Amino acid sequence: MTAEAQSVLVYRLGSLGDTCVALPAFRLIRRAYPQARITLLTNLPVAVKAAPAPALLEGLGLVDYYMAYPVGTRNPITLARLGWRLRRRSFSAVVNLAAWRGLRHLRRDAFFFRLCGIRQRVGFDSLSGHELRTLANGETEKEATRLLRRVATLGEADLHDRRWFDLNLPAAELKAARELLAGASIADNYIVFSIGTKISANDWGHQNWHCLIQTLSGNSPTLGGVFIGSADEAARASEFLEGWSGPRLNLCGRLAPRSSAAVLAGARLFVGHDSGPMHLAAAAGTSCVAIFSARNPPGQWFPLGEGHDVLYRRVECMGCGLDECLIEKKRCIGSISVEEVAATVSRRLARA
Question: What pLDDT is attached to residue 47?
Fold first, then answer.
C-alpha cells in the first residue's frame, strides 16, 4: 500500500473504549495516507450505554466518513447490500483494526473485502500475529499495542508519547468545561467518578461505591466530586453525592464524550471501572485509579500512558471473558476492598 491511495477503508467495531485505544492506530493510518479520504466502517449505533466512534473522532481529522456495519447479522441480503455499497465507493485499500476472534474470522473478513473489489488489504496477514502476546512480567500486551502490530507495515508509533492517543481538545471545549464546573463552584480541585459499566462482571458493587465515596469525602472535605456517565446512571450518582462534603456535580447523561473529556482534563484524578470513561480519562491526560475485574487478561485493557493505578486480582479463572460472573461474590473484583481503593486514591492525590 502506498501513500498515493485515494480512498481508504478502516474496519473497526466497538464503542468509546474501543475507539480510545485505537487512536494511535488511526493516527498511524492518517500519517501513512495524509491526503486519502478515510472511511470508518463501524457499528452505528451501539448499545444505549455506549457512545459510537464518531462521537470521539469528530474534529480530529483522522476519519472523513462513516459507514454502518450490521453487527451480528448473518443475513446474506444485508451483507450483499453492504458489499455493493463498498464496491461502489471504489476503495483502493482496507485496514483491519478488528478485534481478534480467531483465524477463521480473519480469513472470512479478508475474503469479504476481496469480493468488494478492494485489492490492497492491510492487517489481514495471518502470519503477522494478531493474537495478544504475553509479556515478561506476566501481563498481556495492551490492545493498542496489538493493533499497532497489526498495521506495522504502515510505520511505528510510540505509546510512551501521549500525543499518539491525545484528544487534541480545543480551547473552546476546555473553556466550556471550566464554565460548567464553575457553575457548581468547582475550580481545579476535583475528582471524577464513573461507576457505570456495560458488563455485569466489571461492576464493583453498589455498597462498595457508596462506602468509598463517603470515605473519600470524609478524608478531603473540600474536594470537588463530579460524576460522568450515561443517563441511566444519574439517579445512582445523585444518591452517592448526597453525602459528599465538598462541591458536587452530577453530569451523567448530560455530556457528549468530548465534553466529558474536557471535564476530565481538568480533574486531579479519575476513579472508576474498566470502562469507556476510564479510557477517555487516560486520553485526556488524567491519572486513573481503575478497578478491574479479571474477565480479561491483565494488561490488555489497562489505561494508556503513565501515572495510573490499576487494581486487578490475578485469580485462577482470570481471562474467562464472561459478561456475568458465575462465581459468588466475584472472586476477582469482589476481593478488592474499599480501604485498598481509598488508600490508592489518597496516595495518587498526594502525588498529583
Answer: 58
Q: Amino acid identity of 206?
A: H
Compute the C-alpha angle 274/48/335, nearest 5°.
25
3-state SS of 241-282?
A: HCCCCCCEEECCCCCCHHHHHHHHHCCCEEEEECCHHHHHHH
**H helical segments located in the chain:** 16-21, 23-32, 54-57, 76-89, 103-115, 143-150, 171-182, 206-219, 234-241, 257-265, 276-283, 338-351
Contact 193, 273 (CB under 8 A): no
pLDDT value of position 74: 75
Regions of the chain short of the pLDDT cut 70:
1-5, 45-50, 126-130
Q: What is the Cα–Cα distance from 249 to 111, expressed in whole angstroms?
A: 50
Query: What does the alpha-carbon distance between residue 320 and residue 131 come to, in Å, rounded to a whole number?
Result: 16
- How much is the pLDDT for 69? 87
Sheet of 120-122, strands arranged across: 65-68, 37-42, 7-11, 93-96, 120-122
Q: What is the pLDDT of residue 2?
A: 47
**Under 8 Å CB-to-CB from 115, ≥6 apart: which residues?**
83
Report how far residue 158's alpha carbon sits from residue 154's, in angstroms, rounded to the nearest whole number.
Answer: 14
With beta carbons less than 8 A apart as the criterion, state whether 280 and 260 touch. yes
The Cα–Cα gap between 269 and 189 comes to: 9
What strands lie across the sheet with 248-250, from one edge to the other? 248-250, 224-227, 190-194, 269-273, 288-291, 309-311
The pLDDT, as a whole number, for residue 329 is 74
State pTM to two decimals.
0.93
Nearest in space to 94 (alpha carbons), one of 52, 158, 130, 40: 40
Considering only CA atoms, which of 337, 326, 50, 323 is closest in space to residue 201? 323
Which domains does the chain show, CATH number per domain?
7-164 (3.40.50.2000), 171-351 (3.40.50.2000)
**CA-based max dimension of the chain:** 62
